[in-house]
Design brief:
The chain is mainly beta. Helix content is 12%, strand content 48%. The chain contains 2 helices and 7 strands, in the order βββαββαββ. The protein has helices at 30-33, 53-58, and strands spanning 2-7, 13-22, 25-28, 37-43, 47-50, 63-65, 69-74. The strands form 2 sheets. The protein has a 4-stranded antiparallel beta sheet with strand order 3-2-1-4. A 3-stranded antiparallel beta sheet has the order 5-7-6, with no helix packed on it. The protein is elongated and about 50 Å long. The mean pLDDT is 84.
Amino acid sequence: MAYVEVESPNGDLGIGSAFHVGDGVFLTARHVVEDKRITEICMTESVSIPFTEEELRTEIPHTFLNGDTPVHEVSNKSLTLKR
C-alpha cells in the first residue's frame, strides 16, 4: 500500500490510497488524482521486490532475501514519480 498526496487547483491538500500492481506501477482511484497535482507518493511499509531475470543479467544485486533470493529493497520513504 501507498498513499498519494495531492493538491487541488485552489491549494487544498488531499490524500488517497494506492496499491502496487507490479513493475513499479501503483493504482489509485480517478477521483484521487483527477484535476489535481500529485505532491507525494509514499509506501506505508518497506518491501522487498525480487529481481527479474533481465535485471539479474544486467545488474549486481546487493540485497538478498532469506540469504539467496536477490531483491530490491524499497523503503517507506517518498517514491519518485516517473509518469
